[in-house]
Amino acid sequence: MTTKIVGLKIWVRGIVQGVGFRPFIYGLAVQHHLTGWVRNTSSGVEIEVNGSQAGVLAFLSVIHDNPPPLARIDELRSQSCEPDGYTAFEIQSSQPKPGDFIPVPPDISICPDCQKELFSPVDRRYRYPFVNCTNCGPRFSIIKDIPYDRPLTTMADFKMCPDCQAEYDDPRNRRFHAQPTACPICGPQLWYEENGKRLGEREEALQLARLALQAGKIIAVKGLGGFHLACDATNPAALEELRKRKKRSDKPFALMAFDLAAVERHCQVNPAEKELLLSRQHPIVILERKPGSMVVVTVAPYQHTIGIMLPYTPLHLLLLEPAPDFPDVLVMTSGNLSEEPIAFEDEDARNRMGELADAYLLHDRPIHMRVDDSVTRVVDQHSYLIRRSRGYAPDPIQLPNAVPSILATGAELKNTFCLTRDDYAFLSHHIGDMENYETLRSFEEGITHFERLFRIQPEVITCDMHPDYLATRYALQLANEKDLPLVQVQHHHAHLAACLADNHWKTDEPVIGLSFDGTGLGTDGAVWGSEFLLGNYAGYRRLYHLSYVPLPGGDIATRKPARMALAHLWQAGIDWEADLPPVEALCYEERTALRTQLTHRLNSPSTSSMGRLFDAVSALIGVRQAATYEGQAAIELEALADPQESGSYAFDVTDRLVNPAPVLQALISDWRQGISLPVLSARFHNSMVQMIVDVCKIIQQHEGVNTVALSGGVWQNRYLLENTCQVLQRSGFEVLTHHQVPANDGCIALGQAMIAAKTTISTH
Q: Do 353 and 346 contact (CB within 8 A), yes or no?
């Protein structure tokens, strides 16, 4: 009896290019005795198969249930078609379609197979710093356009040797159509420079860099998405010199260790943290430092955690290869001066880092798009992003519904931008603080690249309300030039909307939004930051917030927690007694000027900032009087908190205002009695948790809302976040937190886009 042959046409949308999808389909078709073809298009992958009904159905089932590990299927459609008499299954050439687009895969850390080849003396890629395959290697950082084929990447000028070409053309090989594939004969090469002179190439270059690191030198290393500055993390003199040159007095440095065993020599690592370290993204993970670690304490001053990652490229593995007397952990910090974007082009790096680095380890594979390292930590056994960049971007956030094409320009600090199309939000990699021309240029270049890559022509522009933000000015100018609608979004509403989108919130039901951060312009002209909102994508009502307090000197107060502490005491009617730490920290003249400033409200806008309250408490009990980086006072306050302490103080909650005056008075009283800083810190944090739950219960009683969304930089405080979630959940609330994007201002652009989409749809 002859088996009836049927035909099926399949369309797959999602992250299905550059992840081994076509060879996977080829092998699957052969396994099920199917004929036909598969090809890339500008919108995904198309497949046509002929075969038995059972074979075709089994084939479709495996695609749906067990795609390749790096693939992400967002849509799978199929329809019957007439069999076309194919005699074999083949992989056809890519078919570009004008206007179509696909998600682009992020850069992926080296896979186990490539790592094995890297250290195998019998392999032709032995110790080759650019080994990669379909399952790993550079993607986003080298792609110039779609479809993702070698001529449209920075590998276009590297002509493959016959051996590499044979692998590239073989559907059964794991390097089939691996666009960055190369070997020592035909691929990129390494060299070492000192004082403008090339002193060594290939393996010699690597060994010269290792000798320099061993000798305490600072090396600029060209990596995957830009330059790192590397030095021995166990050498105090090297650390001190790096801080001096980089003009970075206290902010923690990221570290890199060769393997998990090396990380565990320096850090406590639980199973969830281990999984995160070893994930395909290989992000920086914030871990508890072990007391006996040889890592210099000035890597992360005044903290009991350090941020550490595993090598994600073959070059990093070779650089950190264990050897006698070679450090098992290196500082691997962004290659830039403080507040500038990471350098990613050779000449720019030489110009900008000439005063920072003693030498350079360079290679000739161009980087098309700079990408910083991602930063994460584990909260409640789940990954919690602090900075979303390499390994994650430009993975799209899938939205609950289709939206217009929108450009959202984000916030001033920790900027990301966002472009939307259909049901995708393409949130950019980390751009940084928009405080200088270099970062603005990086921002503009990124937007141009995303628009080209994802075939997006924005129909709507959206931005923050603050008129002085560079991102806002850019949006205003662009909307004017292109005659496009402009939607300006209140900062804390954007936080709420971002958390909803992050949780795929589909309904118009309002939630209680706890948008807690350092700063955001409010609709009344004050600086907001402790907002209990009731809202959704369409709008919000501001129900509760901290009592207003003057912000003396505006942004200056963010760098002077002592000034913030005295402003809070002044507002609360508490005397500036001479023995209080913030009073001692400021000289008589500065205190006199500050009192005048507060009394006459000179350059002292009103603020309800939760971040500034944390700063004030940190200064009040003697933790931090002057900050050298954003959030330092609050971070150091959290680091001190005793997890065993259960005591707390009571905020005064009346007339929709949360007054911290009783808490400040109680803290001073306990401090005078000699209560330790860890106990004082914990009591303040516990007071925050109790106040939050109390206010949420009041809102619940009046509004009948049972869901709470937590967003804003304050929610990077792990002690506060974990305890708040636990108590809210015990009280019967559903709690939404961030999963795919950071809680800090790195999520703002996503929230702006969702609000603008709702505004645009409702006005049409």
A: no
Cα 154 to chain center, whole Å?
Answer: 24
Q: Would you state the CATH architecture of domain 5-91?
A: 2-Layer Sandwich (3.30)
Whole-number Å distance between alpha carbons of 72 and 273? 23
CB 46 within 8 A of CB 25: no
Residues of the chain with CATH 3.90.870.40: 190-375
Region 547-691: CATH code: 3.30.420.40
Q: What are phi and psi of 607, to 5 degrees?
A: -140, 145
| Rounded-to-integer distance, Cα 465 and Cα 475, Å | 11
> Quick one: tokens of 320?
């950190």
- pLDDT above 90 coverage of the chain, percent: 86
DSSP one-letter string for 379-415: ETTEEEEEE--TTTTTPPEEEEEEE--EEE---SSSB
For residues 162-178, give the mean pLDDT.
92
Please tell me the distance from the alpha carbon of residue 181 to that of residue 170, in angstroms, as a whole number. 13
Tell me the DSSP string of 206-246. Answer: HHHHHHHHHTT--EEEE-SSSEEEEEETT-HHHHHHHHHHH
Phi, psi dihedrals of residue 711, rounded to the nearest 5°: -145, 155
Burial 391-418 (b: 16+ CB within 10 A, else e): bbbbbbbbbeeebbbbbbbbbbbbbbbb
pLDDT category at 101 given cuts 50, 70, 90 is: confident
DSSP helix/strand/coil, 78: strand
User: What are 602-625's pLDDT values in tens digits?
Assistant: 999 999 999 999 999 999 999 999
